[in-house]
Amino acid sequence: MKSLKNCNYSKILKKMKILKNKKGLTLIETLVAIAIFSIGIEGFTLLFLNTWKNNKYTLEMGQSSMTVSQGINTIVNYLRSVRQSDNGAYPIKSADDNDVVVYSDYDRDGITERLHIYKNDQDILMGVTDPTVTIPKTYPSEDEETFTLATKIVNTDTEPIFYYYDKNYAGGDDQLPITTPANVADIRLLKIHLKINIDPNNAPDNIELQTFVEMRNLNDYDRIH
């Protein structure tokens, strides 16, 4: 009986020794492994989010610049076809750095509307006013309808959106624009210069769009005078 107990005890000790020799992960090793795995996942997540954010910004900037480009094309079409108002006023009423008022048939209905194109904060707006039906025709002093032509415009106070040139402009960079407020009778060419950025605080790079507009009907005034 005694020998049997000794035998069982010996087997138990042997099994304990085998288990002792089979080393596994300790609690500390397990925690360290979890921490390393968590750091790796966090780094991958941050990389993914930054990549997604940059791609999203690039896509939104592209969409914004396309929208602004369409807005510029709209402005160009209106300015290119300026004409004498229905009450006989000169095609351009006023011209300043960020504000121009002209007469043009913007909706192709045969009636000449007054168009007020201007910068308001980060938007380019256009106010449209129809002439009265009375004789003589007049244009109410306030804009009757206002439309947004472009958004996210970040030109500073020292960066006008409009530049004006007279008939002597030959396209040289050294030729200065007309001093503003411009004498409207001198204007023959207008430059539009816009800077766009959907989020200047996070991405300071701007997209710049620039175009020139020849006011074709104003050439008739050169021949008259």
Detailed description of the structure:
- 36% of the residues lie in helices and 23% in strands.
- It has 225 residues and is α+β, with helices and mostly antiparallel strands.
- The chain has one domain (52-224).
- The strands form 2 sheets. A 5-stranded antiparallel sheet has the order 1-2-3-4-5, with helices on one face. It has a 3-stranded antiparallel sheet with strand order 6-7-8, covered by helices on one side.
- The longest helix is centred in the N-terminal third of the chain and has 54 residues, at 27-80.
- It is elongated and about 95 Å long.
- The termini are far apart.
- The mean pLDDT is 79.
Properties at a glance:
225 residues; alpha+beta; 23% strand
Largest sheet, spatial ordering of strands: 1-2-3-4-5
Main sheet overview: 5 strands, antiparallel
Number of domains: 1
Along the chain, the helix and strand elements come as HHEEEEEEEEH
* DSSP strand count: 8
Pick out the low-confidence regions. Answer: none
* Global Rg: 36 Å
Give the number of helices: 3
Indicate the topology.
Layout: H1 2-21, H2 27-80, E1 92-96, E2 99-104, E3 113-120, E4 123-129, E5 145-150, E6 162-165, E7 189-196, E8 207-214, H3 219-224
Antiparallel strand pairs: 1-2, 2-3, 3-4, 4-5, 6-7, 7-8
